[in-house]
Amino acid sequence: MYASKDRQSKGTVSVEVFQGRLRLRLPRQLFEGKQKYLTLGLSDTKINLKIAEAKAQEIQTDIVLERFDYTLDKYRPTHLKPVTMNHSQQALNLGALWGKYMEFKKPIASPSTIGNQYAGFTRAIALLPSQNLKDSILIRDWIVANKPPNAAKRLIVQLNACCKWGMKSGLITENPFVDMASEIKLPKNQRGEDNEISPFNREERDLIIEAFAKHPHYRFYTAYVQFCFFTGCRPSEAIGLQWKHIDFDNSVVKFRQAVVFGEGYQPTVKDGLKTQEKRDFPINNQLREILTAHRSEGAKPNDFVFSAKEGGFIRVNNFANVAWRKVLESCGIEYRKPYQTRHSFITLCLDAHIEVKDVAKWVGNSPEIIYRHYAAHLRSLSVPEL
Fold first, then answer.
1. In the chain, where the domains are located
2. Which CATH number fits domain 87-181: 2.60.40, 3.90.470, 1.10.150, 1.20.1260?
3. pLDDT in tens, 274-284
4. pLDDT tens-digit series, residues 332-368
5. Which of 27, 40, 66, 276 has its CA 20 to 30 A from that of 290?
6. How far apart are CA 119 and CA 111, in angstroms?
7. d(Cα 264, Cα 266) in Å, to the nearest integer?
8. Given this structure, which CATH class describes domain 202-381?
C-alpha cells in the first residue's frame, strides 16, 4: 500500500486479488465516495505483483503531485486501451522491431557479439510481459524486478539502442526507452571482466603453473597458461596466435588477431584486437624459453601456437570450467577466472615499478585505465604525501 504524509485526505492506492487476477483499488476520495478499481489484466504471480505495485506507486505519485488522470486512460495496460494505428504499425511490436534491428546488425557486428550477446538479449525480449512499445514502463519495471542490476541495465541499453535505430529508420516515431538505463545504478562490484580485478600473487601464479605441468590430464595446457601469465594478453589473443606471429629474430610477439566464438559457439578468427588493430610484445629470455620448448619440430608458420588437447581451438569457457577449475581446486586456490592472468601480469609489473605507460603499451590499455583500475590493488600507486 502506498500513502503520502502530505496528502492523506486523497487516500491511498492498494493492490488486491480478485478472481485470481490483480487489480488496483483506487481511493474513494477521488470519486466522491464511490469505489473504483483499475483492472491490470495480470494473473496473481510474484512477478506480476511487483508490476502491479509499481503501477500503484505511479498512480500514488500522480495523486500527490495533483496530476491524476481521472479518466484512468494513462494507467490502463496498453492492450486494454483503444488504439488508432494502421495495421503495419500495430504489427511492429518490440519483438518485431528487435528482429529488424538484428538483421541490420548482423553484417556489421562480430560473430561473437551476434551469437553470444545479442542472442541472449533476443531470448530475454521474448520473455517480457508485453511486446507493445507503449508498455515501456511496465517492461522496465518487470526487467528491474526480475534481473540483477547489471543485466537489467544492459538489456534496457539495448532496447534504447534498438528503438533509436528504429526511429532513424522510420519504423517508429518515438523511443520510449530513452534515458531509462541511466536510472539504474550499479553496485561497485558489478563490472565486466576488464574491471573484475582479483589477481593472483606471484606464489599463486607459480603454484598454478607447476600444478598444470604435473597434472596427468591437463599438462598439455602448461605453455598456454604460462604465456597468459607472462604476457598479460587476453585469452582470445593467445588462442589467435600463429607461429608466424612469433618473431624470434626480433624478439617480439605480434598480436594481430583474436579468436571469438559466435552463434552456436563456433570459433572465428577475427582480424584486430579488442581495443586496437595490433600490438607488439617484447620476448624476454623467460618467454623465449617457454615458446621454444613448446614449439614442435614440424610447426608451420600458419599453425596456431596453442590448441585444445583434442585439436582445434581452445574453447575458453570449457577450459575455465574444467581444466582451470580442477587445477585450482587441486592447489587449494580460490577460483578466479582465467582472465585474471592478465590482471596478475599487470599488477606484478606495477609492483616491480615498471612505468605505467610501458605496462599499458604491453597489454593494450591506456595509462588512464591502468591508474583507474589497478590503483586500489597496489600501495605503490597511492598518492604520496607532498
1. 5-76, 87-181, 202-381
2. 1.10.150
3. 888 999 999 99
4. 888 899 999 999 999 889 888 899 999 999 999 888 8
5. 276
6. 11
7. 5
8. mainly alpha
77 closest CA partner among 44, 46, 54: 54
Q: Which residues pair with 17 in a beta bridge?
A: 22
Equal fold, 87-181 vs 202-381: no
CB-based contacts of 229, cutoff 8 Å, min separation 6: 205, 208, 209, 341, 344, 345
Summarize pLDDT for 221-256 with one digit per residue, the tens: 999 999 999 999 999 999 999 999 999 999 999 999
- Cβ atoms of 239 and 259 within 8 Å: the answer is yes
Neighbours of 60 (CB within 10 A): 23
Which residues have C-beta within 8 Å of that of residue 72, sequence separation ≥ 6? 36, 38
Contact indicator for 350, 370 with CB cutoff of 8 Å:
yes
Nearest to 333 by CA among 220, 232, 234, 225: 225
Q: HSE-up of 39 (CA within 13 Å, CB side)?
A: 8
Q: Which amino acid is at 257?
A: Q
Rg (CA), the chain: 28
The residue ranges of DSSP E strands in the chain, in sequence order, are 14-18, 21-26, 36-43, 246-247, 252-255, 257-261, 267-271, 279-282
Residues 287, 288, 293, 299: is their CA dihedral positive or negative?
A: positive
What is the CB neighbour count within 10 angstroms for residue 5?
Answer: 6
Q: What is the DSSP letter of 217?
A: T
